Amino acid sequence: MSPPPRAPRPRVAVTLAGVGGWVDAVGFLTLFGLFTAHLSGNTARLGVELGQGEVSTALTYAVPIVVFFAAVAAGAWFVAARHPRGPLTPLLGVEAVLVTAFMVVGTVLRDAGDLTPRSAAYYLLAVTAVAAMGLQTASLHHVADVSVHTTFITGMVTGFAQEVVAAARHDRDAARRARIHGGLVAAYIVGAVSGSALETPWRLWSLAVPVAVLVTLTVAMRRAAPGRLSDAR
C-alpha cells in the first residue's frame, strides 16, 4: 500500500485565494454585478429582487446559487470517492478548463453584442464561471492542520480576527493560524485588485493569468508526486 499523499502547503491555498479573487472580480465586471466565487452577495441580491417582485431579475442570482451548490457537491463527491482529503490536481485541471472557456466564449459573445443581462449568453457564462469557483471551493479545506476556504473570505476574515485574539491571549499556535488566514484574505484582495485593473485594458483575456497559475500549479503538483493523482489531497 502506498503512503498517503502529503497535505498541501499554505502557499497552495494562498495561491488559490488569489485566483478566486481574480476570477470573482473579472466575473463581477463582466456579468453585471454577479459574484462568481461566493454566495453572500448573490443571496442578498436574490432576496432583494424577490422582495421587490422582480422575479426575472431574481433568477439571474438564483441560477448561480444552484450551480455553485451542484459544483461543490460534485467536487465533494469526487474528493470523498478518491481520498478523504481529496485529490486536488484533477479538480484544478477542470477549473482551469472552465475558466478558459469563460474567457474565450465570453470574449466572443461580448464582442458579438450577445452578452446582456438575463440573456442566454449571460446564463452560459455565469454557469461556467460559477462552476469553476464551486469546484475550487470543494477542492481544499485544510492546510497545515488549519481549516481554510479559498473563496469564502468572510470565514477567513472571521478566523483571522479570532486567531489574532487567541494569539494575544498567549495561544502559542494561534499566530501561525492567523498568518495563514491573513495570507488568504490578503491574496484574495490582491487577486481582485489585479483582475479588476487588468480587465480594463485586457477585458476577459485578463483571465489568462489565473488560468496560467492553475495550469502551473497543477503541473507542479503532479511532478512532485509521480504515479499519483496528486500530492495535495
Q: What's this, in brief?
A:
It contains 8 helices and 2 strands.
Distinctive features:
about 230 residues; mainly alpha; Growth Hormone, Chain: A; two-stranded antiparallel sheet; 2 strands; globular; disordered C terminus
What is the C-alpha radius of gyration, as a whole number of Å? 18 Å
Separation of the first and last Cα atoms: 17 Å
As residue ranges, the low-confidence spans are: 227-233
The ordered H/E elements are: HHHHHEEHHH
**Residue-averaged pLDDT, rounded?**
90
Total domain count? 1
CATH second-level architecture = Up-down Bundle
Note the beta-strand portion: under 5%
The number of distinct β-strands equals 2
How is the CATH topology named? Growth Hormone, Chain: A
CATH class: Mainly Alpha
- Order of strands in the sheet with most strands: 1-2
User: What shape does the CA trace take?
Assistant: globular
